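Exercise 7.
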Amino acid sequence: YDMMLPMKNLFNAQYAKDISVKVKSAVHVKQARGEFVGAFASYGYMKDPKNHNHLVIDPVASETVRRIFDMFEQGTGKIRIAKILNAEGVPCPSSYKHLMGDKYCNNHRLESTDYWTYATVHRILKNEMYIGNMEQGRDTRAQLHGKAKRKDRSDWIVVEGTHEAIIGR
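Solution. The predicted structure, written as tokens, is:
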């Protein structure tokens, strides 16, 4: 029995690696088909109650997204947009998700940051999700609990026309 235990452990470890490869492959296939595989939808969208791999427009948050694009198009800077939204008391994306009952944790923000920032506005303005394109596979992770590394934008999985656009192209 003492000699069999290491062999069993070896087989179990190999089985776990094999399953991991298969799960990653299935997720990659779903992303390539334009299905949403994330835990939380981008600000302005929510998961379709009938199909969690499809996004629908969140009527409240999408108005804020439209305002951000309108203000930027009119020449308002990103810092100024953040200040305007903060002055009006508009909840930032992570606060909005908490208000909607989601158990969301944003790794981009500091613990005490509960307001709009330049980075938040910048990320919204650069996100192709708002023109109806599914943009996924931005990061790669060597291990399950390892630190994610951002891929080059050319390596992201972008599928056009997968959901209703909030703004025009």
